[in-house]
Design a protein that fits this description.
The chain is mainly alpha-helical. The protein has two domains: 1-67, Arc Repressor Mutant, subunit A; 70-218. Helix content is 73%, strand content 0%. Helix 1 (3-37) packs across helix 4, helix 5 packs antiparallel against helix 7 and helix 5 packs antiparallel against helix 9 (192-209).
């Protein structure tokens, strides 16, 4: 190995280690923020509090999130949805597409429930009706994928069904988060049990209202 090649290998090794540390720090920041949100209103959470809980420097937090804490809250929401999609793909492999489609709303709502009252701060962090929380691609795109995998046609009707399910989940999440934060008197879901109950029946209920057979006939 020549001197130049050896030097390049060392640089690559350092770069890989630095990237692992960077990703690890970001993960710790998001985990710490989620823990804080479960017990503390977002308006009371500071970058210093996040840094101390994540065991990183304040500068490290700003390196990852140069904006305000709301930027971190949005990323926490994205992580909830990403984690739910990953968990649903595992269900797909173990139990099939029908079970996976029914599980996706449950996985999303379970992540929201873990945030408690903090879910409201995540959802409203950009004042855009909660769309920031749900990330890109939005859950309706992922839901469409699983509905088609389960046997529904990849057409406009199934797209409408995926959107209907997503809208129901958005509504129940906002209802749950609003009540947990402001005691908003909702008739949809005010407790974690009610949240999860709606999530568990979201696919069957939505498709039933649309007159779509579920599970699809083989």
């Amino acid at each position: 190995m020549g001197v130049q090649e050896s030097a390049e290998s060392k640089v690559d090794g350092r770069s890989l280690r630095a990237e692992r540390v960077r990703k690890g720090n970001k993960s710790e920041i998001l985990s710490a923020t989620g823990e804080l949100l479960s017990t503390t209103r977002g308006s009371s959470i500071t970058v210093r509090m996040i840094a101390e809980r994540a065991k990183v420097s304040i500068a490290t937090v700003y390196n990852h999130f140069p904006g305000s804490t709301s930027e971190i809250f949005i990323e926490v929401g994205h992580r909830v949805v990403d984690d739910a999609a990953a968990a649903t793909r595992e269900v797909l492999e173990r139990e099939g597409a029908v079970a996976a489609a029914e599980f996706l709303p449950v996985a999303v709502c379970s992540g929201v429930a873990s945030l408690g009252a903090g879910a409201f701060d995540v959802i409203t962090s950009r004042q855009v009706g909660g769309s920031a929380f749900f990330g890109d691609p939005p859950p309706e795109a992922t839901m469409f994928e699983f509905l088609v995998a389960a046997g529904l046609d990849a057409d406009a009707r199934t797209q409408d069904a995926a959107r209907t399910i997503a809208y129901l989940i958005r509504g129940v999440i906002f209802s749950f988060a609003s009540h947990a934060t402001t005691e908003f008197a909702s008739e949809i879901a005010t407790t974690e049990d009610e949240l999860m109950s709606v999530a568990a029946s979201a696919v069957r209920q939505s498709l039933g209202l649309l007159g779509i057979q579920w599970p699809p006939s083989s």
